Amino acid sequence: MALLSIIVPSYNEEANIVNTAGRLTQVLTDADIPFEIVFVSDGSRDRTFDRVQELAAQDERICGIEFSRNFGKEAAIFAGLKQAKGNCCVVMDCDLQHPPQVIPEMYRLWQQGYDVVEGVKSDRGKESGLHRMFANLFYGIMSRLMKIDMKDTSDFKLLDRKVMDVLLGLTERNTFFRALTFWAGFSSVSVSYEVGERAFGTSKWSFRGLIRYAVSNTTSFTTAPLQLVTLAGGIFIAAAFVLGIQTLFNYFTHSAVEGFTTVILLILIVGGLLMISMGVIGHYIARIYEEVKGRPRYIIAKDTAKEKALHEKERE
Ligand code: UDP
Ligand code: MG
Question: Does ligand 1 come within 6 angstroms of the Cβ of 13?
Fold first, then answer.
């Protein structure tokens, strides 16, 4: 039967590794699905990778890598895709907020011929009101810009080997995994799931982190903000035309002087818009600069498979 790789990006998840691996093993064994679990420790500062090593030593089906530092969840997902040997893979969080019991259903749909099975949140779990508001706003705008319905989508999905290879073949470094599967196309179907509560530990996202994530994903996926700059410029030229006519009219009818308010407002508004626009353009240039440098997306410091091979050699 076809092998399923479970990819688990993990950052400071020492409390979750054993529990998550146990739950996965149980669910997948019950469903009679051949699997491997690939833990990608994203430069964890706790004993996450030690836990992975212990498990890998006991169980052939479990393996993992450790980054040299924290490279972010996107990089961890892509490293997992690279490591995975399966005919298909499922990406899921380490904290069991993506319920393992949904995986067999995803696998069955894959067997029926679907290349992508999207996990869709049926509710967003216990998130604070503010968090939910921002998430809604972000995904609302993103969906509009990308012409993809992104609401309630997540990183919890199953991908066929074909799709994995397409994603691995992308040369860009700043990726947005959640949207890329839509971009890639292929036959897809969605499965809804209830977001569980984090099993152990705390969420790794700060408010600043979320803003950075939103900005980075928008700019890595769409150039719409650049076009908005042009649009804003157009609107201002039109307004300037009307105001210009009015000013000239005042001048010729000798009723000028008045209108300092207009001048101050215009300087403030136009100055602000110019600065924002330059910021937007600067952001994209920074992006281009990063891509041009061509640095690797992540650096692997440790690999359970390699360490195992070394041990075996020493024993001989
Ligand atoms: N994660 C990661 N690198 C990071 C931050 C998070 O690999 O820099 C992993 C984390 O270990 C977890 C998943 O991404 O498996 C989701 O993170 P978290 O649960 O903190 O996010 P939330 O569920 O609160 O959105
Ligand atoms: Mg979580």
Answer: yes
